[in-house]
Amino acid sequence: IHLDSPWTDIDVSVGEPFQFTRHQLVQLVRDGHLTPKEVSDSLSYFAFDFQNGRHKDKRDPLSYLMKILRTPSVYPRPEDYETPLERSRRERREELERKERQHLAEEKQLIDLEFSEWKRGLANEELTRLVPEFARNPGPIQDSALRAHFDEQVWPMTKVNAVEPKLESLQIRNMISESLREVSG
Fold first, then answer.
1. For a tag site, which of 20, 44, 77, 164 has the least CB within 10 Å?
2. To which H or E segment does residue 56 belong?
């Protein structure tokens, strides 16, 4: 039998681990019960389950699949199945989430270090001026009052003066490099 597109577009190679070949595809075409998409999806879903060991108890996985498809029925999509596009998107999202967590952890560490340095540099008169009277004794209450002041008043200015100019400088250098490449290229 000669197979026309879209039947020829079905990737039978995903069935190699359980001996699905063009011969089985021709049988399904002759049966005429399923669409090419239904066959392709069923084959992909079964191959996914097979790769994940879900049919090891079957003596003949190919016969099991063919029995389902010739009933006529389709092999159901496994709950944990992902298309290559879905897997790619999930992996990209996980990568971005990991980078964001890392960025936030680094920023928190930077803020904590800046706070410690700022606090060490405070003179007693300045400390008295910054915290309310009930928080003037060293301890957790004083640390909380100082941290609140630092987070609201000091860090925004420190961040602008210490961190962002470095970013601007890097951006300017990148722009200069890019324009030089355009001129020389």
1. 164
2. none
CA–CA dist 35, 56 (Å, integer): 28
User: Tens of pLDDT along 171-183?
Assistant: 666 666 666 666 6
Q: 144: how many CB neighbours lie within 10 A of its CB?
A: 12
The amino acid at residue 17 is P
- Running DSSP on this structure, what letter comes out for residue 161? I
Answer whether residue 167 shows pLDDT above 70: no
In angstroms, the CA 182 to CA 44 distance is: 47
Report the distance separating Cα 63 and Cα 68, nearest Å: 9
Is pLDDT at 48 greater than 70 in this prediction?
A: yes
Higher pLDDT, 34 or 84: 34
C-alpha to C-alpha distances, 61 to 35, 36, 82, 174, nearest whole angstrom: 22, 21, 21, 57
56 CB neighbour count, 10 Å cutoff: 8
Token pair 């001996």 is at which residue?
A: 19
